[in-house]
């Protein structure tokens, strides 16, 4: 409980909340593997050791299927999106897989013990913002290694300039409506940070959406041909610290939309 309290109350968590790209499709349901990484490539070992796969049991597949991505932020805590863990479902319905580059390759799943949806989360606004964030407490701490390691949280004072390159990671469609083929390798794509005003104009040009589509807790990323658009479950957005060559920032991403 102290760990949870410090995470939710920390300036870093508030910063993470402000870094929620929230444009795109409707609220997801478990089992939809729609984390599209368009224009990306396979991830090499040890590059994103905080990447996790959130699983939910699929009757059709008789298997716990990938539902959403997330970031390991503590040996016993994962950060994902609130819309991925529906309020009507108990924590015991979910599992987490860490350290896996290929989905379903020698699964060793960990039970989720507790789900803390952000108190201001509004499911009707999940695609547009609405505090779409949820820390997940694992039943037991994960064993850390060079393949499994939490991502560092940023200082509250961090300001990321527009145009800064970030990396989106996830599994799913590699082209619109073209699923990632077996063996389902984790994908990455580099994308620049885009101003919300520009992003709103682009989104409205493509969707005819209202001027209130992009909310204050939204971060837009992407460029034509490279993004995570047309997704309904969150990939992970990371920022590389160029001075130290260490990954320093993790953000949960609801779908971003920019070109593509």
Polypeptide structure, described:
With 260 residues, this protein is mainly β. It has a domain at 2-19 and 49-138: Trypsin-like serine proteases (Thrombin, subunit H). 10% of the residues lie in helices and 27% in strands. It has three helices and twelve strands; from the N terminus they run ααβββββββββαβββ. It has helices at 2-9, 11-17, 196-207; strands spanning 41-42, 51-58, 63-74, 77-80, 94-98, 110-115, 134-138, 165-170, 187-194, 220-221, 236-241, 246-252. Strands 1, 8, 9, 10, 11 and 12 form a six-stranded antiparallel sheet that branches. The chain has a six-stranded antiparallel barrel with strand order 2-3-4-7-6-5. A hairpin with a 2-residue loop joins strand 3 (63-74) and strand 4. The longest helix is centred in the C-terminal third of the chain and has 12 residues, at 196-207. The termini are far apart. The relative contact order is 0.26. Mean pLDDT is 74; it is low at 11-35, 229-233 and 242-260.
How do the helices and strands line up, and which of them pair or pack?
Elements: H1 2-9, H2 11-17, E1 41-42, E2 51-58, E3 63-74, E4 77-80, E5 94-98, E6 110-115, E7 134-138, E8 165-170, E9 187-194, H3 196-207, E10 220-221, E11 236-241, E12 246-252
